[in-house]
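Lab meeting minutes (informal)
Scribe: AK
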Amino acid sequence: MRRWMAYLAALATLLSACAYAPTPARSPQAGGSACSAGAPLDLERYMGRWYVIANTPFLSERDYVGDYDEWTLRADGTIEDKYLGRRHDFDQPVTGSHFVAKVMPGTGNTKWRVGLIWPFEVVVVTAYVDPDYRYTIRCMEDGNMVWMLARDPEMGQATYKEMLDRLGALGFNTARMRRVPQKPSQMGQPGFR
């Protein structure tokens, strides 16, 4: 039963992603999606917990607070990809989705095929990671969904602005980004979902 609920949650994620209106993300001088791969990644260094600082929220993420991704490299080279958080409030239990990701060959570890429900997969791209692996920007290959993540659940305003500026320079519509509450005092604050 629990497995079927996870499958249904993943299906809802996929369907909501398909139903979500496209982002007017292309910069005038760029062709195609704003979501392009950044520099090659040290995959082992990239693993671990990443807190969702901001995103372009879609149906299955809108109700979550304290969201985070947790990636674990498996012996077979696949990645255990967990999206976790608390639904509606910080006093709720941690729930979420568990997926398996496969690094696409020849991409410098920057493009992953994430299996939602067989046979459905999405391609998630790492567009940026800072040299110290503290901040990263990930996006769906078509640019419709974007995530700004950090190793620490709190990001200072100056760093957040730098990351927004980076997103804008990549060609993303930063007006669609919403900060994710990572502590109770952030709930309901301007700019937060």
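Next up, CB showed the second protein from the same session:
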Amino acid sequence: MRGRNLLSIADLSAREVDDVLTQAMALKDGADGPALAGKTLALVFEKPSLRTRVSFHVAMKQLGGDCIYLSPPEVGLGQRETPADVARVLSRYVHCIAARTFEQETVAELAAHAGIPVINALSDHEHPCQALADLLTVREKKGALPGVTLAYIGDGNNVANSLALAAGITGMHFRISSPTGYGIPEAVAVRAKALAAASGGSVEEASTPEEAVSGADVVYTDVWASMGQEREAAVRREDFAAFCVDEALMALARSDAIFMHDLPAHRGEEVTDQVMDGPQSVVFDQAENRMHAQKGLLALILGEEE
């Protein structure tokens, strides 16, 4: 994987996903990682961030490298300077770019013109680094990925897209329940189902949250209105009213099911406090695993070949 881009979780094969997770778990357990001394990661962000910014920064530092954060006003992607020119300049200074952008096309343009690896740190279409952390968390809690049933309740957004594809790659069973008109895009569903057919997994659209959650090993939700959709928030709250993960819904999952959320959470909307803070919740383990998963990824992309 040395020198590779990661724009979509589907850029990785099942073997490569396993390699990232295995490396991440080893580093989390205290194994020595590849020394990235002299390597610098540039964080180019168009959106605010807590977990993504801090986890990448700390991950790079713990691997012995350096990290520089470039805020939206400093770069002005597409306004002050084109993504292509930003990529060409940064390629002369740093060894990798992690970009958090409004549009997938922006991170794709960075990758097309950079002479260094580009990582999608979130776009409107996908969140592959979150998916890697989610897979790491499920593997830790359930022991393996193949055959695990993950029920996703809510908006078919970037996180849902990456989860559906990740489930297809790894042989998980992915069920999603969304209000009419809010499901994952047809193209993503088709690709995820094709990946699942090859891996022994499945990807299904459930008609109700109850159908999706019934017997599930993992229950996952996300905010109803993502960044950039604030004007739709009132309408979405009404449309998603029946899609809150509460104790009654969790009771339909397996007794040992875990609850996951990529954060930040809008408590009282997509999830209740009782579930968020309850014994089945692993959301803060999941948040921690952003750092470990990204350490595994950076080690393989930037580490020297043995």
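CB comment: The chain has two domains: 9-126+289-302, 130-286.
No objections, moving on.
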